[in-house]
Specification:
This protein has about 180 residues and is an alpha/beta fold. Helix content is about 40%, strand content about 30%.
Length: about 180
């Protein structure tokens, strides 16, 4: 009888673990889908994994570059979760998740470097940049202005309509040439 109880407990634990894995996969896909939906509505084009010269004999990597009605938007995409403690001028940010502390370099520093490289790489078009966080986070001490979640990005951009402006075609082609081919 006791052996049968143990099997039932193990079976129930396995079912629960499987349900948690399925829920996590669904959540991750939903967050990724939310960002892609925002991009489709607010950009004429997106280039992924763009590698361009940094102006100092090196290169920088940009997760995504969007062509929007405002110009080019460079995105540094981070999958974070938990409580984030960070500010524009802090060298290191801290993420607390389930009692674990993880320090990491302020992503806005790298973002500025990538935006500057993109401005030097293309001319005659506005360039802006944001860190996009795709996980469930909170900023107990306040969120830095250029740190957004997908819904926040949608609020900052106008939806695009009609074709891409002809004057931006050459600029976009130049950026797209330096993107990872899908």
């Amino acid at each position: 009888m006791e052996l049968q109880s143990n099997y039932l407990l193990i079976g129930a634990a396995l079912v629960l673990a499987l349900m948690l894995v399925v829920a996590l996969v669904f959540y991750i896909r939903h967050r990724r889908h939310a960002l892609n939906a925002v991009i489709r509505r607010h950009a004429w084009g997106q280039a992924r994994d763009v590698v361009i010269p940094d102006g100092m004999d090196g290169h920088v990597h940009i997760d995504r570059v969007l062509l929007t009605s405002r110009g080019l938007i460079a995105l540094d995409i981070r999958a974070l979760r938990g409580a984030i403690f960070g500010a524009d001028k802090m060298e290191e940010w801290v993420m607390l998740d389930n009692g674990r502390r993880h320090g990491f370099r302020n992503p806005l520093v790298g973002l500025d470097e990538r935006a500057t490289a993109l401005r030097q790489f293309v001319t005659d078009i506005e360039v802006d940049a944001f860190v996009i966080i795709t996980g469930p986070v909170e900023f107990p001490k306040g969120r830095p202005e250029r740190t957004l979640q997908p819904d926040d990005l949608a609020e900052r951009l106008e939806p695009v309509s009609g074709p891409m402006p002809d004057s931006w075609r050459a600029v976009w082609d130049k950026v797209a040439e330096h993107a990872k081919k899908a």
